[in-house]
């Protein structure tokens, strides 16, 4: 922990802007290590979410709790990654985002899709549909799954 | 025909010079206008905007807001453009300093007593006074006195009043007097004390009252159910039509997010002019209540089990496969679009079922020729006719918009109106010929006093309410009516006039007739499987107790309560579809919001079901199904158009015995006639507020509707 926060502080007690001060993102050797780093990033982002929303003046649009849930949904879209280096790169990109959001280098327009309305898709699950609707036409598949194009 | 009428009316002008256009100059630009134009109309023709509040194209000119004043050369003072006719060589100045100062002065007086409450006013953003004060008003105020305050009036639950904001344009007064035909409003007091209202306090009520909100140029009369829910700039507007009224008036659906916020009328001269009735305008909030949003299957104990689409269609397919085509019956609902009707027809025929729309209370009409079942003189034909005989329809309740047009024709063209059926205050003078079908037989014999009037008429029009044709003796009554039409020369192909008209009250019926669906109800038949396609107004005794009933529709109403399996359908604001109105005009309804839950467009459900049944229908999207419609009836893909057809060919109805019973009044409550309006809280409020039993001190001799 000391490597991550330094001076005995933790996720709650560290200052908002102290992201990179003690946090050295070292390349992970195993999948578990990479996942833990990624989880830490998520916890960091959650810890700073009220601050980010306040800085971006979007507290009237979304509650921090909902923003955290939305961010989780957004991050889950990358769950398919199994290579530690890929996960690390996601973590690094996450910290970049967090850092620039905290220091107000990033306009909230650039990340509202992450915290306000993350796109929820069925990546990783749609193979079930192929089995379930095996003998159906594309119309019926769309009808059942509700994915078809709207008819105007 | 229209040209002929215009030609005749031109002969009544006092001088032949008036036939010629005259030239006037608007801001130096020459414009050639008809001699009966007002200055305001001339300016409009020249493309010059003249601000106004009290002037309205469809109302009489009152000239009391004074906002439209313009300078005219060689006249000592500025004149109101709306009430002053043009004269040859007139030079109108709308941009002079004199006009500018005069307008500013008028605006200053209007604002002297108008409260500055735009931030809390519902008209904000679409207020004529707000816009015009920004453009034409002085930028400073000099009025330091107190503003007046006026007590609010009771215009019913649909119109919210803040009478302090009223600028006395008297549009509402003129609307009630001229269009709605209820001369109840007026001004009392003078100058600062002027108030619009009823002299003796009374609730104002008309089936067209929602139009007051559109007419009011300020925030004095606002849309009460819509109050404070949205600002106009937040709304997304979809141009659509309303199939809940059989004339399919053009409407604008305003949505915010996934919710319809309000419905406004659009201009359509040949259909609704610019009016819609209150049910069209306000019943949409019923689309949020009592909705079916999941497939439901009734269990043995009467409770419902929620199913996925896949399971529901499989249950249905199993039930269908058990039944032969002859034991099936399909009933088409009131608001069905042509797409759904065609898909339903195709599917049922594929299953070997020909009992489509075989209803006990079905309209006894033949689909062979279009003039058997349409309004052949068109809605606009009311203004060309000189006599109108209404049979079995209370126009004020059945179709208030048509009623407004009839009223206009009685006032402007001297239309003579006769009525057979329940008499009521129709807002214009009319002759009541009788309440029962015996009046029809008397007319046919020529013994009725009205027969002579009918004989003399040049362009007579007979309007038959569809409810008369739903009687058990519907075909026999229709046969008598056709004979009357023949005897009194109502159909004149040489003058391009067919005066035989049917006023339908369900667009679904017209769509079914258009694609040739007809079948007779067999009282002895005991169907084992019934498919209710959005049908809620059916007779419960048509359905045997042991029949398996499928209801595909929008609301948990009559149909769903009887159903064994419920499939959620999309309502008219949630799907795109074409509808045929009582005129034969095909109009396009547009999707405005997504359907709730699992609900799908009706034709999509039928298409999916067909595939599960192994009888796949050959269309996958709206375009393909419209090709299919075009195969059956090519005129159904020509939108906002009435395909011409022969006026003389028609099927002769079979003669029969006519019951001499009373033609009863079919609408007991104007505000609740279908599943959507029955679920609407606003319509419930109206039913309570406008219940005639509440508004009278007298004990009724007969039970009040």
From TrEMBL, chain A:
<protein>
    <submittedName>
        <fullName>Uncharacterized protein</fullName>
    </submittedName>
</protein>
From TrEMBL, chain B:
<keyword id="KW-0411">Iron-sulfur</keyword>
<feature type="domain" description="4Fe-4S Mo/W bis-MGD-type">
    <location>
        <begin position="235"/>
        <end position="291"/>
    </location>
</feature>
<dbReference type="InterPro" id="IPR000283">
    <property type="entry name" value="NADH_UbQ_OxRdtase_75kDa_su_CS"/>
</dbReference>
<dbReference type="InterPro" id="IPR006963">
    <property type="entry name" value="Mopterin_OxRdtase_4Fe-4S_dom"/>
</dbReference>
<dbReference type="Pfam" id="PF09326">
    <property type="entry name" value="NADH_dhqG_C"/>
</dbReference>
<dbReference type="InterPro" id="IPR001041">
    <property type="entry name" value="2Fe-2S_ferredoxin-type"/>
</dbReference>
<dbReference type="InterPro" id="IPR015405">
    <property type="entry name" value="NDUFS1-like_C"/>
</dbReference>
<dbReference type="InterPro" id="IPR054351">
    <property type="entry name" value="NADH_UbQ_OxRdtase_ferredoxin"/>
</dbReference>
<comment type="similarity">
    <text>Belongs to the complex I 75 kDa subunit family.</text>
</comment>
<keyword id="KW-1278">Translocase</keyword>
<dbReference type="InterPro" id="IPR050123">
    <property type="entry name" value="Prok_molybdopt-oxidoreductase"/>
</dbReference>
<keyword id="KW-0408">Iron</keyword>
<keyword id="KW-0520">NAD</keyword>
<dbReference type="GO" id="GO:0051539">
    <property type="term" value="F:4 iron, 4 sulfur cluster binding"/>
</dbReference>
<keyword id="KW-0479">Metal-binding</keyword>
<dbReference type="GO" id="GO:0042773">
    <property type="term" value="P:ATP synthesis coupled electron transport"/>
</dbReference>
<dbReference type="Pfam" id="PF22151">
    <property type="entry name" value="Fer4_NDSU1"/>
</dbReference>
<dbReference type="InterPro" id="IPR010228">
    <property type="entry name" value="NADH_UbQ_OxRdtase_Gsu"/>
</dbReference>
<dbReference type="GO" id="GO:0016020">
    <property type="term" value="C:membrane"/>
</dbReference>
<feature type="domain" description="4Fe-4S His(Cys)3-ligated-type">
    <location>
        <begin position="98"/>
        <end position="137"/>
    </location>
</feature>
<dbReference type="GO" id="GO:0016651">
    <property type="term" value="F:oxidoreductase activity, acting on NAD(P)H"/>
</dbReference>
<dbReference type="InterPro" id="IPR006656">
    <property type="entry name" value="Mopterin_OxRdtase"/>
</dbReference>
């Amino acid at each position: 922990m000391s490597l991550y926060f330094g001076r005995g502080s933790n996720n709650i007690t560290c200052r908002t802007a102290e992201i990179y001060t003690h946090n050295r993102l070292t390349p992970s050797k195993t999948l578990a290590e990479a996942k833990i780093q990624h989880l830490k990033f998520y916890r960091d982002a959650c810890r700073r979410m009220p601050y980010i929303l306040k800085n971006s003046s979007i507290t009237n649009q979304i509650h921090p709790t909902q923003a955290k849930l939305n961010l989780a949904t957004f991050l889950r879209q990358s769950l398919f990654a199994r290579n530690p280096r890929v996960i690390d790169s996601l973590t690094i990109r996450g910290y970049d985002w967090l850092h620039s959001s905290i220091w107000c280098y990033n306009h909230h327009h650039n990340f509202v899709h992450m915290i306000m309305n993350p796109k929820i898709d069925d990546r990783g699950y749609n193979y079930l549909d192929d089995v379930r609707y095996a003998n159906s036409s594309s119309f019926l598949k769309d009808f059942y799954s509700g994915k078809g194009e709207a008819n105007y | 025909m229209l040209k002929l009428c215009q030609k005749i009316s031109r002969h009544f002008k006092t001088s032949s010079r008036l036939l010629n256009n005259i030239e006037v100059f608007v801001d130096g630009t020459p414009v050639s206008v008809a001699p009966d134009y007002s200055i305001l109309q001339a300016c409009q023709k020249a493309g010059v905007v003249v601000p106004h509040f009290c002037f309205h194209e469809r109302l009489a000119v009152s000239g009391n807001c004074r906002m439209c004043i313009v300078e005219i050369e060689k006249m000592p003072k500025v004149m109101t453009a709306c009430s002053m006719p043009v004269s040859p060589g007139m030079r109108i100045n709308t941009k002079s300093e004199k006009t500018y100062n005069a307008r500013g002065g008028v605006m200053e007086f209007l604002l002297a007593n108008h409260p500055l409450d735009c931030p809390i006013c519902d008209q904000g953003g679409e207020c004529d006074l707000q816009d015009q004060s920004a453009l034409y008003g002085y930028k400073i105020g000099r009025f330091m006195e107190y503003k007046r305050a006026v007590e609010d009036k009771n215009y019913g639950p649909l119109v919210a009043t803040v009478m302090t904001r009223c600028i006395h344009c008297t549009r509402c007064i003129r609307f009630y007097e001229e269009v709605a035909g209820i001369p109840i409003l007026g001004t009392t007091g003078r100058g600062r004390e002027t108030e619009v209202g009823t002299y003796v306090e009374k609730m104002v009520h008309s089936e067209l009252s929602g139009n007051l909100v559109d007419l009011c140029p300020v925030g004095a009369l606002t849309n009460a159910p819509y109050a404070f829910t949205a600002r106009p700039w937040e709304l997304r507007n979809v141009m659509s039509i309303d199939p809940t009224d059989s004339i399919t008036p053009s409407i604008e659906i305003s949505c915010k997010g996934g919710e319809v916020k309000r419905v406004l009328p659009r201009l359509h001269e040949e259909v609704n002019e610019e009016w819609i009735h209150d049910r069209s305008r306000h019943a949409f909030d019923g689309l949020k209540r009592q909705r079916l949003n999941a497939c439901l299957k009734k269990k043995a104990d009467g409770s419902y089990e929620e199913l996925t689409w896949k399971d529901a269609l499989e249950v249905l397919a199993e039930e269908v496969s058990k039944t032969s085509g002859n034991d099936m019956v399909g009933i088409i609902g009131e608001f069905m679009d042509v797409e759904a009707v065609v898909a339903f027809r195709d599917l049922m025929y594929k299953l070997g079922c020909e009992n489509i729309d075989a209803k006990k209370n079905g309209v006894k009409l033949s689909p062979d020729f279009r003039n058997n079942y349409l309004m052949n003189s068109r809605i606009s034909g009311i203004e060309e006719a000189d006599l109108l005989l209404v049979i079995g329809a209370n126009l004020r309740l059945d179709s208030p918009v048509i009623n407004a047009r009839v009223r206009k024709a009685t006032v402007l063209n001297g239309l003579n109106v006769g009525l057979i059926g329940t008499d009521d205050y129709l807002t214009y003078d009319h002759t009541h010929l009788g309440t029962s079908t015996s009046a029809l037989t008397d007319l046919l014999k020529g013994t009725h006093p009205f027969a002579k009037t009918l004989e003399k008429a040049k362009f007579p029009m007979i309007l038959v309410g569809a409810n008369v044709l739903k009687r058990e003796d519907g075909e026999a009554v229709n046969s008598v009516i056709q004979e009357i039409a023949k005897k009194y020369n109502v159909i004149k192909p040489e003058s391009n006039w067919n005066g035989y008209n049917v006023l339908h009250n369900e667009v679904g019926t017209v769509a079914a007739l258009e694609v040739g669906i007809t079948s007779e109800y067999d009282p002895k038949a005991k169907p084992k499987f019934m498919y209710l396609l959005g049908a809620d107004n059916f007779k419960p005794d048509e359905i045997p107790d042991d029949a398996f009933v499928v209801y595909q529709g929008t609301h948990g109403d009559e149909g769903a309560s009887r159903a064994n399996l419920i499939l959620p359908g999309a309502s008219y604001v949630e799907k795109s579809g074409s509808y045929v109105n009582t005129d034969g005009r095909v109009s396009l309804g547009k999707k405005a919001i997504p359907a709730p839950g699992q609900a799908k467009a009706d034709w999509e459900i039928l298409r999916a079901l067909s595939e599960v049944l192994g009888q796949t229908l050959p269309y996958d999207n709206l375009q393909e199904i419209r090709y299919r419609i075009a195969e059956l009836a090519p005129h159904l893909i020509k939108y906002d158009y009435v395909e011409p057809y022969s006026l003389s060919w028609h099927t002769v109805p079979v003669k029969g015995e006519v019951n001499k019973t009373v033609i009863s009044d079919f609408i007991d409550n104007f505000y609740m006639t279908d599943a959507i309006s029955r679920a609407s809280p606003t319509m419930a409020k109206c039913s309570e507020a406008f219940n005639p039993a509440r508004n009278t001190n007298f004990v009724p001799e007969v039970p009040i509707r």
